[in-house]
């Protein structure tokens, strides 16, 4: 059986990403520049033999996956599924506000002066999740237990499905904080990251019921795709 590999991609840059607004369960489409970046990613992955493809149920993730598959030499033959468990965190009443507002509120809930101090003190995802839950006046945000269960089981079920079907490579399009959180669930020593670039690739393998990480947040694929586009 071939080993199971997940190419986990953060969706392309969206309207809200561009104007720095909070985008969890709310959704905006890719910008022209965002779609172009994902097309470059697709060109770099065009000969990758994906057995299956997955995206969260957010429009920006589905749009990203379709652009990548549209460039793939086997695109039409690759089974594509949507899984709501790998969507972004829900930020509740903080959704749609400016990033600076949310990352001003969350540190204060945790008794830090600002975002930088919160990160410097190695605050955990559990603490950040609980702070968002406390700050959400709409009561929509998930508890840490709810969030960790859906993210871990979502990715694990995808990997298990691919493995059960003979292994190989799968494309999985998800979201920045969700991917970073997954890495932390896989390995508690993995840093709390907020900086995964749009269109970046995190490469995971899955063997004997365990994930291991080969590459985190690589933008080299996009650069390779640009070179391919320029050569033609």
TrEMBL record:
The keyword Signal does not apply. Substrate binds at residues 10-17, 60. Gene3D superfamilies: Phosphoglycerate mutase-like (3.40.50.1240). GO terms for biological process: negative regulation of glycolytic process; regulation of pentose-phosphate shunt. SUPFAM superfamilies: Phosphoglycerate mutase-like (SSF53254). The active site is at residues 11, 88. The record marks 175 as: Transition state stabilizer. Keywords: Hydrolase. It holds the Pfam family His_Phos_1. InterPro entries: His_Pase_superF_clade-1 (IPR013078), His_PPase_superfam (IPR029033), Phosphoglycerate_Mutase (IPR051695). One of its GO terms (molecular function) is fructose-2,6-bisphosphate 2-phosphatase activity. The keyword Ligase does not apply. GO terms for cellular component: cytosol. This is Phosphoglycerate mutase. The lineage of its organism: Bacteria, Bacillati, Bacillota, Bacilli, Lactobacillales.
């Amino acid at each position: 059986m071939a080993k199971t590999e997940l190419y986990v991609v953060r969706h392309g840059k969206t309207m809200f990403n561009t104007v720095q607004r909070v985008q969890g369960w709310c959704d905006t489409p890719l910008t022209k520049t965002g779609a172009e970046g994902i097309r470059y990613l697709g060109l770099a992955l065009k000969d990758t033999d994906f057995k299956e493809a997955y995206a969260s149920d957010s429009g920006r993730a589905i749009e990203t996956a379709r652009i990548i598959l549209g460039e793939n030499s086997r695109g039409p033959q690759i089974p594509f599924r949507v899984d709501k468990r790998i969507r972004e965190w829900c930020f509740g009443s903080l959704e749609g506000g400016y990033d600076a507002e949310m990352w001003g509120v969350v540190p204060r809930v945790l008794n830090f002066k600002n975002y930088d101090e919160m990160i410097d003190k190695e605050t955990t995802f559990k603490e950040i999740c609980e702070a968002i839950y406390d700050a959400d006046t709409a009561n929509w945000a998930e508890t840490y237990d709810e969030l960790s269960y859906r993210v871990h089981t979502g990715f694990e079920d995808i990997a298990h499905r691919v493995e059960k079907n003979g292994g190989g490579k799968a494309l999985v399009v998800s979201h920045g904080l969700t991917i970073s959180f997954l890495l932390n669930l896989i390995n508690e020593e993995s840093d709390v990251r907020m900086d995964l670039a749009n269109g970046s690739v995190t490469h995971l393998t899955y063997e004997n019921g365990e994930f291991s990480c080969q590459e985190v947040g690589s933008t080299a694929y996009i650069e390779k795709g640009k070179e391919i586009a320029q050569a033609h």
